[in-house]
Amino acid sequence: MCGIIGYVGSKNNTELGIRALKRLEYRGYDSAGMAIIEESGLESVKVSGKVDKLRDKLKETDFKGTPTLFHSRWSTHGGPTRENAHPQFDCKGEVAVVHNGIIENFTKIKERLIEEGHKFSSETDTEVIAHLIEKFYDGDLEEAVRKAINLLEGAYGLAVISTKEPDKIIAAKMSSPVVVSVNEAGGFVSSDPAAIVEHSKNMIFLEDEEIAIVTEDGFRIKDRDQNVLEKEEVEIDWDLKEAQKSGYDHFMMKEMMEQPKSIKDSIRGRITDDGDVKLGGLDEISHELESLEKLTILACGTSHFASMVGKYLIEEISGIPVEVGLASEFRYRKRPYDKKEGFLFVSQSGETADTLKALEEVKKRHALTLGIVNVVGSSIARKTDGGVYNHAGPEIGVASTKAFTSQLSILTLLAVYLGRQRDLSKPESAKILTELEQLPKKVESILENREEIKEKAERYKDYEHFLFMGRRYNYPTAMEGALKLKEISYIHAEGYSAAEMKHGPIALIDEDFPTFAVCLQSSVYGKMISNVEEIRARKGPMIVLATEGDEDIKNHSDDVIEIPQTMEVLSPVLAVVPFQLFAYYMAVLKGFDPDKPRNLSKVVTVE
Ligand code: AGP
Fold first, then answer.
1. Cβ pair 240, 392 in contact under 8 A
2. At what angle do helices 402-420 and 571-589 cross, to 10 degrees?
3. What is the pLDDT of residues 363-418, one digit of tens each?
4. What is the 8-class DSSP label of residue 548?
């Protein structure tokens, strides 16, 4: 959740560091800080608040030193105070540490260090790392860091500098991401490529238990046994412009508007002229996929709702039975593994702790693992046996939008890929793929009508509760619509299968409890009309998502939002867009920042 940056080089460090930090701010933002090694020793500035506050403070300084550390924090241990802001230091002020993750055994370590005479100044778990390095330092900073992290339990992505060896940064990784780059500007360490991509698109992603020693003109990476590793550089497939707002008020609006492009990019080069699917990231496991007899999809949040749509897609197009589960719950299950079972992990960030934990559980059972991940080089992408990158570009807004429609597009490709390995005929495959390729322009037409959705939001902005309901493929869409609204506008919203209304939720309905219903012309249209009438009979305000040209629906609803017709199984890609826009406008109307919703962070790297 936090953003970490280390820099060693001759550039103007504070401005370079602040610019980089601004690009990580979405990861966590309740306090920020920096440390720098000057001639006078280790200097630092920390603030409780956002990165701009740190930038203002730094204008009062004249730092010229190197190396530097920068950090933007999303609190896990200790409130968002200046003292708890990173970097954290040792007793003598010679070691500085920035950290992303959670040290689960820090209390025990802290007690022992206090007994040994160490003085602490914060409530954070991170501070114990600085004191451990101080304790173990005996002329070799790398060795002291290694001894310190060997005592840690939990997750860390960290960067360390010391006045004792001011020419280097030591970085270490366990469960939280760390990326390294040495380029013309100097040596960089970060938790996110976005902080470095301005200087270079080529980076190295550390694996768990690896340590990097980074200087201005080079780096070495070692494993836990101190073997020097030859690591392959990864080329980031997006540029900085894409990671910035490009004139929109919020990243979320930019990313919603990018969906025609991101869906195109997700399928680009993956559909062959003769109606087949090519997924290079699955080539090495295509043989195992041919004999797959069950697929279990594990994810969290929006990615879980995409997985629920994926279940329908893969079962109906490939014939493989699919189980979908919350990654966070899966780890507690004691369930038999089918021999021919594969596990698919869906994650925009590729760093979600719950999903990573589930992946580790599955890997212990040596089952086949694959991923659908957006962030290149992320942990889930590297730990699975094969996978498909979204190529949706960086998603900065905390509320996931383009990643969701990209995930659905790739799940469709995967369903066809698996289907073509089985009984799916070329004509059937071509029909699905041809319609999939039409979706970007259909999404575009919905986005062009966004003013209509803004008007709906204005009309409904004072309601305090919302129900979202849909059936079959759009039951997950209703769940996603409710999540979007609640997470950025803080309005209570429930997502439900419309079929479930009579089993309880309809008791909620009255004139103060509006419903958003997905009522497209489809196999469940008649049943949905009945649901709509049941709600109207109880005076529930009703907004209906309908298929363009459906005249009859106007007899059933006060408010109708029309979307283009498409294949029913692909309709969630279109149906979700009005829900995304509705949530966005509601949040903005209520004066909230949809990019930085309270209590949330873009990447949930804690369990
Ligand atoms: C969705 O809008 C939220 N930001 C959240 O539910 C998110 O989808 C979830 O944390 C999973 O993240 P991931 O896709 O990066 O694993």
1. no
2. 170
3. 999 999 999 999 877 889 989 999 999 988 878 899 999 999 999 999 999 999 99
4. T
Tell me what pLDDT residue 28 has.
52
Architecture of domain 457-589: 3-Layer(aba) Sandwich (3.40)
**How many Cβ atoms from other residues are within 10 Å of residue 18's Cβ?**
18
CA 532 to ligand 1 centroid distance, Å:
30
* Ligand 1 atom closest to residue 398's alpha carbon, by position in its atom list: 4
Residue 349 in contact with residue 603, Cβ under 8 Å?
yes
Assess whether the previous peptide bond of 67 is cis (omega < 30° from 0). Answer: yes
d(CA 173, CA 157): 5
Q: Which of 304, 328, 349, 411 to mutate to test the pocket of ligand 1 (most atoms within 8 A of CB)?
A: 349
CA of 348 relative to ligand 1 center, distance in Å: 7
Local confidence band at 599 (pLDDT 50, 70, 90 cut-offs): confident
Amino acid at 379: S
Active site residue 300: no
Domain layout of the chain by residue ranges:
3-236, 243-448, 457-589
Q: Does pLDDT of 79 surpass 90?
A: no
Determine the atom of ligand 1 nearest the C-alpha atom of 602: 4
What's the confidence (pLDDT) of residue 331? 84
- What is the percent of the chain with per-residue pLDDT over 70, rounded to a whole number? 98
Dig out the tokens for 440 from the structure: 């970007």
Instruction: Give me ligand 1 centre to Cα 123, in Å.
Output: 28
Q: pLDDT per residue over 428-443, tens digit each?
A: 999 999 999 999 999 9
As a whole number of angstroms, the distance between CA 155 and CA 137 comes to 22
Backbone angles phi, psi at 207, to 5 degrees: -95, 165
Q: Enter the pTM of the model.
A: 0.78
Q: Which residues line ligand 1 (CB under 6 A)?
A: 300-303, 347-349, 352, 355, 398-400, 487, 604
- What backbone phi and psi angles, to 5 degrees, belong to 506? -65, -15
Mean pLDDT for all residues in the chain: 93
What CATH code is assigned to 243-448?
A: 3.40.50.10490
Q: Which of 173, 383, 486, 602 is catalytic?
A: 602
Mutate to test the pocket of ligand 1, among 300, 405, 407 (most ligand atoms within 8 A of CB): 300
Residue nearest to atom 16 of ligand 1 (CA): 347
Write the CATH number of the domain with boundaries 3-236.
3.60.20.10
Nearest CA to ligand 1 atom 6: 301
Same fold, 243-448 and 457-589: yes
Residue nearest atom 10 in ligand 1 by C-alpha distance: 301
Between the CA of 112 and the centroid of ligand 1 the distance, in Å, is: 37
* Per-residue pLDDT tens digits for 188-199: 999 989 899 999
- Reply yes or no on whether the pLDDT at 256 is more than 70: yes
219, 205 contact by CB (below 8 A)? no
Look at strands 542-547 and 88-89 and give their pairing: unpaired
91 tagged catalytic: no
Average pLDDT over residues 66-90: 87
Asked if residue 193 has a cis previous peptide bond (ω within 30° of 0), the answer is no
Amino acid of residue 450: R
Give residue 304 CA to ligand 1 midpoint distance, Å: 8
Closest atom of ligand 1 to 349 CA is 15
* 601 Cα to the center of ligand 1, angstroms: 9
Is the per-residue pLDDT at 75 higher than 80? no
